[in-house]
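Marked as duplicate of an earlier ticket. Keeping the data here for the record.
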Amino acid sequence: MAVRIRLQRRGSKKRPFYAIVAADRQMPRDGRYLEKLGTYDPRKESEKAVLKAERVAHWLGMGALPSDPVAKMIKAAGIEPARAQQAAP
């Protein structure tokens, strides 16, 4: 299963609001997702994106690929991918 971190449209007509989610690549934009990782409100002047840094780092460490807009938000927040845990032999 290929996981993407992307925006999911919420809000009403002419008042966009987005959830940042980890979802299977094949699911529709507003369809089922694995985990909600934050929010993005383009109408706010400051702090437009709110991310759960620990969970975003976890998904990046697991190999999830962010969409282009989400990648910019992650870079601006300074989030680095978490190291994958190795199982003890």
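See parent ticket for discussion. The radius of gyration is 14 Å.
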